[in-house]
Amino acid sequence: MATEFKLSAKELLAKIEELIKEGNARRIIIKDEKGRTYIEIPVTIGVIGVVLAPIMAAVAAIAALASNFTVEVIKPDDQE
C-alpha cells in the first residue's frame, strides 16, 4: 500500500524535496483535492542533480494551481 500525505500548497515543495532526498520512494504522485493526478515523478531519475531542478520547478508551478494536495509515495516494496 502506498503512503499518502495531505499537504497545503506551501508545504508541497519542501515535502517533495525531502522525499526525493530520502531516496526510499520509487514514485511520487501529486494529486489535487478531487484526486486528479497532476504529476508522477519517477524518483530514480530524481536523484540526478541535473534532472532535479526542472522537477522542482514543475512542482512549484503545480503548487500555484490549488491550495491542497495529496502526495502518494510508492516504495519499491509496494505492489501495484
What does this 3D model show about the protein?
The protein has 80 residues and is α+β, with helices and mostly antiparallel strands. The protein has one domain. The chain has helices spanning 9-22, 43-46, 49-63; strands at residues 3-8, 27-32, 37-42, 68-74. Strands 1-4-2-3 form a 4-stranded antiparallel beta sheet. A hairpin with a 4-residue loop joins strand 2 and strand 3. Helix 1 (9-22) packs antiparallel against helix 3 (49-63). The chain is globular, with a radius of gyration of 12 Å. The chain starts with a strand and ends in a 6-residue tail after the last strand.
In short:
By secondary structure, the protein is an alpha+beta fold.
Count every helix, treating DSSP H or I runs of 4 or more residues as helices: 3
Q: What is the C-alpha radius of gyration, as a whole number of Å?
A: 12 Å
Low-confidence stretches: none
User: What is the total tally of β strands?
Assistant: 4
Major sheet characteristics: 4 strands, antiparallel
Count of folded domains: 1
Q: Describe the strand arrangement of the main beta sheet, using strand numbers.
A: 1-4-2-3
**Measured distance between first and last alpha carbons:** 8 Å
What gross morphology would you assign?
A: globular
Strand content: 25-35%
Helix share bin: 40-55%
